[in-house]
């Protein structure tokens, strides 16, 4: 068979509104408002740059069933550019843009095919030769609770390469609505070569080949849980039908979580410097993209008291936002303060209560040879008793465990606030 290349994208969600963020920061909100449009433009450009033979889009092109006119026109313009470049497009609709949603009278250019509500086959031809056959189906309505794979046909023997195009939830992924539920076995049984899926927004390869089953993820993250690089898959199919997919990023604004341990920090200035440093790292890794970052502060230390003061976290957030660079920017979307107060283990161990008594024992094992040996004896029973051949723990291991146990005891017996 003739080798070819295609792009598999899904969940474009063009014209996602980002309303909440627009209320907080107009500049950031507007940039995000543009982001799904720009990521789509990047997708079209990538198709042309990579000289792909065709693209498949596995549903949720538009964010809302009442597709905005703006989104539809932008999408149609992109399809025109592909058509002019001789690149065919095969499209299905999902729960966010079902067939019964409002649709302007858009005329699709040549080579663009939108699948209907029943599974059907379309041949992909290049220079008069069929290089692949695609079977796809669109959601007629938002809530599809049936297994759509049941309507897919096993391909005729002799089809050069076959692709299933579907918006569905494989294996009941609980992070997404259970629309068009199916199992990996259902997909295997159809004997297609590649399942181009949409719906789950985080990139996943459920199976590498025979058939390859892939969610490419969405091209542009839309909230803190859609973090990291986002894009599509470029798939090379070899002359013997081998499938070689690779990820290509398309996102223009990146969401990143940042965790900072404050236990070694003593001043608010020091904390701000450290956060700044981490934000600079993020900017470097984002390669020119803007970044929205969700900051989590954790650990025990003097910073807990500083941050617990009235408005301290809000003030820090305001300061970080005010000093953010122009473009590209790193914007802190939230600060989650999970810090804990310091605990003076020695002082706490002197108290005449249960925690005090347990801590004295733990301190003993950390600070005296006898104490450590006693601990080794107790733990040793577990090892020799099981006769499982594990080496006995070293003194250092014992000390680490004892030290961790001390913290855990404090957390459990004396939870904060
Ligand atoms: Mn989606």
CATH topology of the largest domain: Purple Acid Phosphatase, chain A, domain 2
CATH superfamily of the largest domain: Metallo-dependent phosphatases
Helicity level, as a percent range? 25-40%
Unreliable residue stretches: none
Pairing-aware structural class of the strands and helices? Answer: alpha/beta
Gyration radius, rounded: 28 Å
CATH class of the largest domain: Alpha Beta
Q: Report the portion of residues in β strands.
A: 15-25%
Bound chemical compounds: manganese (II) ion
Q: How does this structure look, described?
A:
The mean pLDDT is 90. This protein has 3 domains: 4-249, 4-Layer Sandwich (Purple Acid Phosphatase, chain A, domain 2), CATH 3.60.21; 253-340, no CATH class; 349-413. It starts with a strand and ends with a helix. Helices cover 34% and strands 24% of the residues. Helix 3 links the parallel strand 2 and strand 3 (88-92). It has a 6-stranded mixed beta sheet, with helices on one face. A 6-stranded mixed beta sheet has the order 5-6-7-10-12-11, with no helix packed on it. With 417 residues, the protein is α/β, with parallel strands linked by helices. The protein has 11 helices and 17 strands. It is elongated. The protein binds manganese (II) ion. The site of manganese (II) ion has 6 residues, from loops.
């Amino acid at each position: 068979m003739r080798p070819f290349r295609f792009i598999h994208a899904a969940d474009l969600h063009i014209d996602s509104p980002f309303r909440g963020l627009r209320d907080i920061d107009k500049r950031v909100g507007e940039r995000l408002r543009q982001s799904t449009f720009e990521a789509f433009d990047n997708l079209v450009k990538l198709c042309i740059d990579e000289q792909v033979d065709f693209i498949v889009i596995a549903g949720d092109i538009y964010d809302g069933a009442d597709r905005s006119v703006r989104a539809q026109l932008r999408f149609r313009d992109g399809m025109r550019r592909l058509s002019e470049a001789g690149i065919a497009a095969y499209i299905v609709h999902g729960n966010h843009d079902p067939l019964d949603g409002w649709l302007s009278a858009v005329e699709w250019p040549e080579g663009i095919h939108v699948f209907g509500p029943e599974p059907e086959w379309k041949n992909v031809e290049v220079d008069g030769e069929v290089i692949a056959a695609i079977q796809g189906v669109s959601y007629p309505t938002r809530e599809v609770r049936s297994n759509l794979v049941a309507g897919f046909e096993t391909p005729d023997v002799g089809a050069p390469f076959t692709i299933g195009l579907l918006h569905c939830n494989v294996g009941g992924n609980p992070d997404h609505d259970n629309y068009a539920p199916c199992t990996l076995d259902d997909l295997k049984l159809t004997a297609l070569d590649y399942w181009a899926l949409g719906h789950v927004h985080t990139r996943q390869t459920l199976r590498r080949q025979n058939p390859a089953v892939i969610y490419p993820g969405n091209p542009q993250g839309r909230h803190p849980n859609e973090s990291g690089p986002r894009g599509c898959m470029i798939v090379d199919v070899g002359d013997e039908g081998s499938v070689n997919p690779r990820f290509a990023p398309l996102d223009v604004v990146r969401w990143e979580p940042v965790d900072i341990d404050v236990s070694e920090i003593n001043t608010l200035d020091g904390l701000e410097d450290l956060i700044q440093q981490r934000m600079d790292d993020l900017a470097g890794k984002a390669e020119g993209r803007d970044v929205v970052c969700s900051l989590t502060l954790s650990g025990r230390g003097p910073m807990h008291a500083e941050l617990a003061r009235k408005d301290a976290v809000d003030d820090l957030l305001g300061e970080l936002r005010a000093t953010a660079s122009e473009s590209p920017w790193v914007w802190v979307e939230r600060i989650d303060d999970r810090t804990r107060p310091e605990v003076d283990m020695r002082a706490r161990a002197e108290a005449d209560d249960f925690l005090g008594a347990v801590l004295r024992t733990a301190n003993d094992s950390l600070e005296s040879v006898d104490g450590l040996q006693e601990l080794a004896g107790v733990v040793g029973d577990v090892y020799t008793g099981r006769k499982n051949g594990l080496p006995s723990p070293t003194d250092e291991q014992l000390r680490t465990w004892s030290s961790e146990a001390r913290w855990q005891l404090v957390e459990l017996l004396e939870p904060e606030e």
